[in-house]
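Predicting holo structure, uridine-5'-diphosphate bound.
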Amino acid sequence: MEKQGEQKASRLVFVLYPFPGHINPMLQLAKILHSKGFSITIVHPEFNSPNPSDHLEFTFIPISGNLVESKVSPGDFFDFISALNKNCEGPLIECIPRMSKAEDHRDQISCIIYDGFMYFAQSVADQFKLPGISVRTSPAVTILAFAVFPRLHEQGYMSFLESVSQDQGPELQLLRLKEAAALTRETTTYAMLELRAALTDSMKRCSAIIVNTVDFLEKEALAKVQELFSAPTFTIGPFHKLVPTFSSSLLKEDTDCISWLKRQASKSVIYVSFGSMASVDEKELLEMAWGLANSEQPFLWVVRPGLVRSLNCLALLPNNFQERVGERGCIVEWAPQKEVLAHDAVGGFWSHCGWNSTLESISEGVPMLCKPFFGDQNLSVRYICDVWNVGLELESELERGKIEKAIKRLMEETEGEEMRKRAILLKEKLKLTLREGGSCYNSLNDLAEKILSF
Ligand code: UDP
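Done. Tokens:
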């Protein structure tokens, strides 16, 4: 990547939302912009803190989110975000003048780049007359889903809903955004509306929007986003493809599974992981285990601590399970996922459809068996199964017979083979966007220029 002129480079302040599915892409983005010559300061709440020694090129500033005093648990998703936004504003305001004192021109703050969930950072940017850049680590279509406000006509949000719900092209129809909007009308809570309104408001005021996506993957959704918001949107590609892999995981990666993968036949393994947050109950864990055992397919299964709430998950597997699957099954607590998906032995990914996992899977041409749990996973699954046609959905409850059948459909049958071919085409298409002259390559250069123009 070409570096920008040394004179113009300046400091970018990143504000993290403290969960792995958000921290990783934000650190990847920071590394991408660092490689363009910018200096980076990472401001993060003292919760799930990244390890500064893994990123010596950055300056880290922990701020107190007063989360203990607020008595909110990370499991109460919307209340947790609300508390973070209220409690982190003061500490960030205190940090900015200290950072701005730097005499070296290169160390002056150029802008604040914040995870969209940390919308308070836009108000801080406004207060200091600094440009703010909102980053979405989930698909662009979630920006539209968030802009759906059922009860806020008086604040002018209803026009967003109308604009999103009407005149949908085929892509947005397949995403069933209208259904999502209808659902929103029934299930909204105050905290959820507060997040949607605040996040959308911050995006109306920001100077640029960055989405971890690629133009051709979300054509219609991105066009709508550009209609709704005046700030330019930059889609610089799956962030993880633009930087060397680094480990910032809270759990230690078990690399023994790579030696196991080396002993498996090409495209024979189904990799199973539900990311860092989704959980199942004890019965579902057993159904998964027997579904995998009965499929007779080699599998690599991530059974992370917490997959079954507050229990030692591995101890829950039946005594005769390992005996039944023998060498055919490999179980780890946390895998080097990107390396696993890039391995030739992996032919399918049974996933919860988190956006990072989705991008990582299609970047390696791996078709998916989808079991979404909550939030944007319900939109990613529609892209995978209905728009890109590179996966199938496990629609019903987790039951061993249905799991076995679905695994066979993906791994052994013609239907799965067709999906694998389409996934490889998607991977090739995606690669082209990252090369010189490709849409992501150009968007990254435009973004660097935009920041330098502030
Ligand atoms: N991941 C990993 N090893 C695992 C499971 C997951 O490295 O065993 C990583 C995965 O590569 C992805 C992230 O954890 O980058 C999960 O993010 P995603 O958005 O898919 O789901 P979330 O955890 O936010 O629900």
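The first helix runs from residue 20 to 34.
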